[in-house]
């Protein structure tokens, strides 16, 4: 991959990075047509960076075949309208195979989900990401960091070995830790994406982030775009006005250890008639009494 293409990837990360939901049909399979329609709605709404197979896409509940399908549908639908950052993970051979598949179908970048393992050492974290990054040197690689114990120096070490590691999705809920981590790793060396979406975007932008991920964007692209415009212009009061607008929705998603993170987004989409509310275990649909709350919020945004 040329430095020019990496520049495209870097620019794409400094934006609203949409994590599309994966809609399911009545028989439980991935609903291809609805997925494409939801993706078109994002693109038509002004979104230019998308991450298929992210957590809001229920990455861990999809089969390998379904993950490939979602990647392919995204590439077909996005065309040249968006930069696609494909989520990859699980064991090293699976992550490598997924990254190579992303390359084959024309994606420009991969996001590497945090290694899910009860025993993760700092050095092992570097080895895991290095194996993926070295398998696809032409693609931009974005580690998804959720481990509060990982030192920034380890990310610098990874990038020394793999120059295609160009950005970081940082998702530790601690703005001060993020500020330190980014400076220890190299603030200007990577594109820093606030990986905990709109609620954390203002505090993370103040510490050096230039993009943020979003699941809410599935429901109301204009709301997310309003926030990034405010943050880019340094207008924190305006950004916090958007923050106040999305607060209740995001609190519902974050409750009980984010148990309903995807559920609330799909419930909002269902209330707008855009997809079924079905989620896969270990997620669960919202109880009846909370559905009206979500529907009211979604209706308010679509005015």
TrEMBL record:
Residues given in the record as pyruvate binding sites: 56
UniProt organism field: Streptomyces poonensis
Domain of life: Bacteria
CDD domains: DHDPS-like (cd00408)
Keywords linked to the UniProt accession: Lyase
Sample GO molecular function, one term: 4-hydroxy-tetrahydrodipicolinate synthase activity
Catalytic site: 144 (proton donor/acceptor), 169 (schiff-base intermediate with substrate)
Record's protein name: Dihydrodipicolinate synthase family protein
Annotated family: Belongs to the DapA family.
